[in-house]
Amino acid sequence: MTIYSASSPLLRLNAQDNVAVARMTLEPTALPELGGCSLTGRITQGHKVAIANLAAGEAIIKYGQIIGFATSEIHIGDHVHTHNMAMRDVELAHEFCVDAKDIAYVEHQTSFMGFERANGEAGTRNYIAIVSSVNCSATVAKAVAQHYALPGRLENYPNVDGVIALTHAGGCAINTAAEGYRYLTRTLAGYATHANVGGVVMIGLGCETNQIPALLAAHQLKEGERFRTLTIQATGGTRKSIEATIAAIDAMLPTVNALTRTPQPVSKLKLALECGGSDGYSGISANPALGYAADLLVGHGGTACLAETPEIYGAEHLLTRRARSPEVAEKLLQRIEWWRDYAARGQAELNNNPSHGNKAGGLTTILEKSLGAVAKGGTTRLNAVYEYAERITESGFVFMDTPGYDPIAVTGQVAGGCNVICFTTGRGSVSGFKPAPSLKLATNTPMYERMQEDMDLNCGTIVTGDETVEEVGKRIFQAVIATASGERTLSEIYNYGDNEFVPWQVGAIM
Predict the structure, then answer these.
(1) Are strands 48-50 and 79-80 parallel, antiparallel or unpaired?
(2) DSSP assignment letter at 503
(3) Which of the 8 DSSP states describes residue 125?
(4) What is the pTM of this model?
(5) Residue 21's closest CA among 69, 58, 60?
(6) φ, ψ for residue 400, nearest 5 deg
(7) Quick one: which of 136, 399, 455, 501 could link to 205 by a disulfide (CB 3.0–4.6 Å)?
(8) Range with the lowest mean pLDDT among 2-6, 76-80, 116-120?
């Protein structure tokens, strides 16, 4: 909710707020919204200005929620940021299930053109993936992918989107009984069985801790016409392994190419909700608009997955209120407690999360960042909470426990089955995440215009008052359908996505 008019230079988001956000960069001047008082200094776009006098120690309110506390006396018209505001522990009331509302499902008439898989899922892309079980096989995997990237190598296979190498820095010197091993094997299995992958070759070195037979057995995977495995040591070295992998892919290419796009119900879409390079507008424009699109998708029977546990910290009470059951709410709070301990073990604290770019864009504390971030999740019932890279089996709105670091977070969501990504950004994130297409949603018009070749949609029209959250949300939903049907995103045109496969490494590396 915006309290001021569309022509106001300030955005007040809730009637309880004692700060407002600058719609554009403002020079010192008297404003009616400040009761005739003047801005006491230059306010950069997206930053906060006090609209009430605040004593030292007084709570600063945005979105109708506490985002921090004044560290000194603040006057009407003052810039409110790191120099006069800080984080303190806030006692949050974790009510369960009070806002867990059912959504009115629409008639399932909307469809997209996707690749139907034998297990009933639907892909939005059709890749062949070379999956490394260990870092030691990464060079071979990349060499094979480079072979197929040469002009003409795939011209006879128009239904194959490419051959990708999914390589990583781990796979050995880890405890197979620990969570880090579970995260890695879940991630590799999730990509190997992903709906956007039509064929797989899994390559190991041979002596690594992450043994391929154990991984296959743990996740009930079997070799077949479109799923092959090999190890470099057993195959006879680098050259022979490259040749063997190419031969395996050449053999499966006709079968993978035989798959064609057919009409699929939107209920088969699993949308990853992500934000990176956030700014003071993220929680005002792109995130709530994406939340509206997520509600539309859920209304069609689809799935929307929120993640980044450190970036809901301080706003988790809004999600527990929406939990389907007390058990779902408790699981979310358990993950928050895990993160408190994990951060402490690393001599960190969760409020360290806002980055340099976040702060330059107007975000001051993790509370402020989190309150804006949860807006991506829309308003529907929270149906499930998943650990990292767990397969997403529930439809509707769900949450996955991941770090806030974008490549690791999205890798977990894709491993869980997300086949499209919407990525909101205020500073200009440009990454891609093969095999899932990623739409970039700009929070503000100046950045969109500056980086128009990388941003798929501009949500800054909400800030300028030219569009509503609902109007932009509908545009995002339609863009998701078009992307799922094969329309390439800008990150795909730039061929991003080969370096963003980053499984979460947790625990001792020995």
Answers:
(1) antiparallel
(2) -
(3) S
(4) 0.96
(5) 60
(6) -120, 135
(7) 136
(8) 2-6
Alpha-carbon distance of 147 to 7, in angstroms, equals: 56
Residue-wise DSSP of 162-176: EEEEE--S-SSSS-T
In this structure, what is the dihedral angle of CA atoms 44, 275, 135, 221, given to the nearest 10 degrees? 180
CB neighbourhood size of 466 (10 A)? 13
pLDDT tens track for 390-443: 999 999 999 999 999 999 999 999 999 999 999 999 999 999 999 999 999 999
The overall longest dimension of the chain from CA atoms, in Å, is 80
Please list the helix, strand and coil fractions of the chain in percent, rounded to the nearest 5, in that order. Answer: 35, 20, 45
* Token code pair at residue 408: 């690791």
Alpha-carbon torsion angle 476, 271, 504, 390, nearest 10: 170
| pLDDT value, residue 108 | 60
Q: What is the pLDDT of residue 215?
A: 98
For residue 446, cis peptide bond before it (omega within 30 degrees of 0):
no
Calpha distance 302→477 (Å, rounded): 12
- Predicted pLDDT at 2: 62
- Rg (C-alpha) for the chain, rounded Å, is 24
Instruction: Give how far Cα 414 sits from Cα of 18, 404, 421, Å.
Output: 39, 15, 9
**CA angle (41, 45, 46) in 5-degree steps:** 110
Whole-angstrom Cα distance, residue 252 to residue 71?
64
Distance CA 52, CA 60 (A): 10
Sign of CA dihedral 255, 260, 265, 266: positive
Residue 195 contacts residue 419 (beta carbons within 8 Å)? yes
In sequence order, the β-bridge partners of residue 204 are 231
Q: Provide DSSP, 402-419.
A: --SSHHHHHHHHHHTT--
Q: Report whether 334 contacts 251 (CB < 8 A).
A: no
